[in-house]
């Protein structure tokens, strides 16, 4: 679906790249996780951010939730895929050759304090060169309580990006309403991922749809989120049967080692694996360049008449395609071109994105040609939408909160994106947005928590 299988056959599997996963831990005993696809022991570092210690051997390390193991296995399982003939040359995990730094910052119930999560992220940043950490997966969410730049967890995430780590976050499972992106997915620099599903017809892409639970943008500061979408419906992954999630939802466990789960957590894991493959193919890429390349080669969902099926606030640039990201012949450019993360972290400048809301409650993108882009909830489209290599928007996208999820759309390869990602433009923050942004950060961070994304029904 995202082109990884073909790359596996060509030797692109994430080898040489380390991904850090900040989550509930990892079931190390599974051979598909402890070893790569060549049956070689992979580098596996385990840091308990709750206890603030590196765990050696088996120790007391357990993933009592199951969430971290499932997410990690979607990313890196070395289990071979087979058909009636035998081994297909592909693997269950997106990047089965990667090494892993597993950071445990969430408990059995998927709850983690800001203090523990930040400690885990800081461990990753401090040790990035020791373990060659190039990607960090954050499949969790918290409700925004401040502007992105004031949130201490977001500040830690921004420092990781500034340090050269590609940060991939889940959009959250609180969709489909607008402005439901959580922390740290609301950080403009990072790659925030929404979820789509094959609608239980794996071999038929014509009925693929956006997942109804996938959170949508814009953010309070006006940034378009998510950047891209990836498979996140009924994802098969590893999980011990005595894990909390497996016990709470036994119908989705095979009573051995596999569990089916849906969510933007799994979609983020797919993109983290894709980013590792991209960095294996071109280790010189910066986080901004990885973001630009993944967005530019994404395939947006389109209707039969060629118009976009979902707003950019729902699908971003579209469905990730790692094969095209590796092989596409163009000047990579970079994402976040109009942002300065150093000035942002230093409190000198903060930024707002191009999204706004008019007096009628319609969301739109400022600075667009023609009428711009407006959205008030659904995907009721007129026929005036034009798309070319210059990234021309000249229609009104209506969004009225009436999501019609029974339609399916193709993820079109024919859309070409150039360097001018208009929704990537940023402005110095001036509080000019029409929605109420008067929430205040209170009482420090000590009691604030984040959670691994909420359970959703299979899609």
Annotate the secondary structure layout.
Layout (H helix, E strand, L loop, with lengths): L3 H6 L8 E6 L7 H4 L9 E5 L4 E2 L12 H10 L3 E3 L4 E5 L7 E6 L6 E3 H13 L1 H4 L1 E6 L1 E2 L10 H11 L3 E5 L20 E7 L11 E2 L17 E4 L3 E4 L5 H5 L9 E4 L2 H18 L5 H10 L4 E2 L9 H4 L6 H6 L13 H5 L5 E2 L2 E3 L5 E3 L7 E3 L4 E2 L15 E2 L11 E2 L15 E2 L20 E4 L7
Parallel strand pairs: 1-6, 1-8, 2-6, 8-10, 10-11, 11-13
Antiparallel strand pairs: 2-3, 4-5, 7-25, 9-25, 11-12, 14-15, 16-23, 17-24, 18-19, 19-20, 21-22
How does this model look, in words?
It is a single chain. This protein has 459 residues and is of the alpha/beta class. The chain has a single domain (4-339, 443-452), classed as Rossmann fold (3-Layer(aba) Sandwich). It is 21% helix and 19% strand. Strands 1, 2, 3, 6, 8, 10, 11, 12 and 13 form a 9-stranded mixed β-sheet that branches. The chain is globular, with a radius of gyration of 20 Å. The protein starts with a helix and ends in a 7-residue tail after the last strand.
Helix content: 10-25%
CATH architecture: 3-Layer(aba) Sandwich
- What's the alpha carbon Rg, rounded to whole Å? 20 Å
Derived from helix and strand composition plus strand pairing, the structural class reads alpha/beta
Beta-strand segment tally: 25
In CATH, the homologous superfamily goes by the name Peptidase S8/S53 domain
The total count of helices amounts to: 12
Count of discrete structural domains = 1
Q: Termini, distance in Å?
A: 16 Å
Task: Return the average pLDDT rounded to an integer.
Answer: 79
* CATH domain fold name: Rossmann fold
- Report the CATH C-level class: Alpha Beta
């Amino acid at each position: 679906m995202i082109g990884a299988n073909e790359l596996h056959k060509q030797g692109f599997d994430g080898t040489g790249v380390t991904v850090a996963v900040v989550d509930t831990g990892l079931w190390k005993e599974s051979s598909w996780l402890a070893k790569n696809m060549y049956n070689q022991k992979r580098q596996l570092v385990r840091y308990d951010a709750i206890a603030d210690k590196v765990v050696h051997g088996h120790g007391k390390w357990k993933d009592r939730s199951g969430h971290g193991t499932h997410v990690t296995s979607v990313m890196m399982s070395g289990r071979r895929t087979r058909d009636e003939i035998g081994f297909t040359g592909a693997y269950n995990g997106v990047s089965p050759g990667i090494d892993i730094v597993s950071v445990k910052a969430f408990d059995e119930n998927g709850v983690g304090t800001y203090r523990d999560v930040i400690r885990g992220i800081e461990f990753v940043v401090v040790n990035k060169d020791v373990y060659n950490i190039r990607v960090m997966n954050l499949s969790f969410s918290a409700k925004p309580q401040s502007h992105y730049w004031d949130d201490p967890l977001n500040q830690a995430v921004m420092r990781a990006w500034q340090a050269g780590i590609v940060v991939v976050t889940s959009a959250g499972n609180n969709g489909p309403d607008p402005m439901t992106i959580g922390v740290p997915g609301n950080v403009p620099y990072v790659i925030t991922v929404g979820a789509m599903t094959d609608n239980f017809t794996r071999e038929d892409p014509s009925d693929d749809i956006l997942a109804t639970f996938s959170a949508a943008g814009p953010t309070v500061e006006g940034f378009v989120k998510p950047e891209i979408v990836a498979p996140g419906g009924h994802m098969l992954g590893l999980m011990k049967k005595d894990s909390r999630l497996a016990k709470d939802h036994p119908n989705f466990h095979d009573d051995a080692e596999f569990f089916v789960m849906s969510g933007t957590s799994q979609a983020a894991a797919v993109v983290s694996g894709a980013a590792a493959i991209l960095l294996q193919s071109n280790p010189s890429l910066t986080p901004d360049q990885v973001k630009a390349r993944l967005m530019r080669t994404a395939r947006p969902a389109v209707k039969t008449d060629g118009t976009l099926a979902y707003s950019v606030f729902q699908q971003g640039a579209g469905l990730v395609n790692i094969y095209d990201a590796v092989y596409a012949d163009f000047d990579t450019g970079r994402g976040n071109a109009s942002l300065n993360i150093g000035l942002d972290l230093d409190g000198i400048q903060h930024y707002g994105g191009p999204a706004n809301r008019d007096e009628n409650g319609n969301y739109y993108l400022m600075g667009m040609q023609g009428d711009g882009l407006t959205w008030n909830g659904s995907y009721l489209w007129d026929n005036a939408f034009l798309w070319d290599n210059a990234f021309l928007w000249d229609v009104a996208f209506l969004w009225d909160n009436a999501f019609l999820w029974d339609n399916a759309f193709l993820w079109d390869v024919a859309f070409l994106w150039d360097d001018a990602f208009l929704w990537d433009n940023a402005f110095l923050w001036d509080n000019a947005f029409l929605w109420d942004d008067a929430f205040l950060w209170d009482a420090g961070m000590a009691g604030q928590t984040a959670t691994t994304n909420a359970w959703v029904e299979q899609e």
